[in-house]
Amino acid sequence: MAHTLPQRPDPGEAAAPDDAPEAPPEDASPMTLMDKGENELTGSASEESQETTTSTIITTTVITTEQAPAPCSVSFSDPEGYIDSSDYPPLPLSSFLECMYNVTVYTGYGVELQVKSVNLSDGELLSIRGVDGPTLTVLANQTLLVEGQVIRSPTNTISVYFRTFQDDVLGTFQLHYQAFMLSCNFPRRPDYGDVTVMDLHPGGAAHFHCHLGYELQGAKTLTCMNASKPHWSSEEPVCSAPCGGAVHNATIGRVLSPSYPGNTNGSQFCVWTIEAPEGQKLHLHFERLSLHEKDRMMVYSGLINKSAPLYDSLQTENVPFEGLLSEGNSIRIEFTSDQARAASAFNIRFEAFEKGHCYEPYIQNGNFTTSDPTYNIGTTVEFTCDPGHSLEQGPAIIECINVRDPYWNDTEPLCRAMCGGELSAVAGVVLSPNWPEPYVEGEDCIWKIHVGEEKRIFLDIQL
């Protein structure tokens, strides 16, 4: 195999480079070379000018100046006066009007505004605001203002704000203001109770009480406090029927089915003990008794459950509408319920009376007259019903008999709202059956009202 080896050049020979510069022609002069260089530079610049584009950006800045309002502020401190739109200055050019009218009176007084006239253009704003420190409360604005309207501030300062953009025709308004003494709001009357207000101004008091059978939950008396911003000393109380209780020296009262809010375990065991003064007896009158089949009521003639039983709801289905009489001066009532919500309802009226007398009769939705207010032997009582009711389940007249142990010769009647009937009186009332209790479903009642041939009938329906 033959190999070819690289040979070293001969030292006597000069090595010629691969990229040897080209020799200039013999006739080339220095000027010719300069012209050539300039041409090369010019050609290079021409090529670059074809590839470069020059752009000019013009930026325009627009400065907008916000239209400044023309201020208009008027303050009033007199106890009475007028706020009139003619009080503001002429509207400057290229501006709008913004007016603030502030009325401040003595501490303990408020400001009452009455709208005398108001005639605003579209886009104009008129706002009446109550001022309470840094807080502004809108009391009325241009959409609600009418002539004769009265607006009262909750404090001694009121503010009227007016703004308009009109150039020629401006709206007009006139408000009359006067100071009035600040007061507390009328307290809410509790359900099943009432309230008596002595004075609504600071220092005044409101007294609360409940109807028979209910107890007051909360303060019995509230006081109006703070002259600058009057308010009641605490929240209004409520009346609720308690689960049990004790009554001493009883005269007249009620035992009601307990109010169930707050009953968390779904069951109740309530005990009421009623004790009259010595030498007196007690009478129970069942105005309403509707028990759930699993609930139970027991009545004893005494203070303990070992006393003589007078009534057991599980032993009898009949409601003792004729009432129950104690053997002595005390009675015990027990009510047991395992229901998760109120399923039973009862309203039992009790009263104490002297031995040797009959007890005072009672009739719901009616009234009676008596021949002897002490209800001694021989006393007669005559019953009448309220309009819209009729006597049922008893006579209109009863008599107190039996010298040894006085009692009424019959039970008190009931006054029930009629289901239909013929009516010919000059005026009267038509009530839903069993009023004020709910009526029974499925009843078909027709009332016929007859008047003179040349007369008409006016019906005032209240639902």
TrEMBL record:
Record carries keyword Cell division: no
InterPro entries according to UniProt: CUB_dom, SEZ6_CSMD_C4BPB_Regulators, Sperma_CUB_dom_sf, Sushi/SCR/CCP_sf, Sushi_SCR_CCP_dom
Start-end of Low complexity biased regions: 42-55
Disulfide bonding pattern of the chain: 72-99, 243-270
Domain CUB: 72-180, 243-353, 419-463
UniProt-listed GO biological process terms: regulation of protein kinase C signaling; synapse maturation
Keyword Disulfide bond: yes
Origin superkingdom: Eukaryota
One GO CC annotation: endoplasmic reticulum
Region (Disordered): 1-55
The entry's keywords: Disulfide bond, Repeat, Sushi
Domain Sushi residues, every copy: 182-241, 356-417
The protein's name: Seizure 6-like protein
Source organism per UniProt: Leptonychotes weddellii (Weddell seal)
